[in-house]
Amino acid sequence: MNRKAQNFIEYAALIMIISVALVAMKVYIQRAMNARLAQVRAELSESIR
Known about the structure:
49 residues, rod-shaped
């Protein structure tokens, strides 16, 4: 029973670490996507002219 509890705690800690990393990366991914969209908008507005 003790080993099962330890496994559960290890998996819970791993999931928490991955979740925190994904939340932290969200800001950078969002900035990168916004920069790319701005670049595409600029290219499209230039091609229309």
